[in-house]
Amino acid sequence: QVDLVESGGGLVQPGGSLRLSCAASKSIFGAGAMGWYRRAPDKPRELVATIASGGSTNYASFAKGRFTVSRDSAKNTVYLQMNNLKPEDTAVYYCNSDPPIGYDALSWGQGTQVTVSS
Q1: d(Cα 50, Cα 35) in Å, to the nearest integer?
Q2: SS3 10
Q3: Each residue of 83-110: pLDDT tens digit?
Q4: Do 13 and 86 contact (CB within 8 A), yes or no?
Q5: What 3-state class would DSSP assign to 26?
């Protein structure tokens, strides 16, 4: 399986915050842009945010103003700071390159579950 390990998910109340981390292999991280994606129940996977090797970022409309993506090249790690979480943010969050390495199951890590509920 691809060398991507997501962590940091959990159960949080609406309005709360979480910080996700993604440790990637040097080959994946060093190839260029990285992205965070999510898959909610019964919905297709969607892009959340991307960050280029130079640090420029892009966000899905639902993430703007609430989520911040960052990367640490020394650690081959990408982060997603999520604030003011809403129940509709409940999903499994994944990281991958941008564009993704592939779309089959072996091209993705296990993801990390984020549940926003009171």
Answers
A1: 4
A2: strand
A3: 999 999 999 999 999 999 988 988 999 9
A4: no
A5: helix
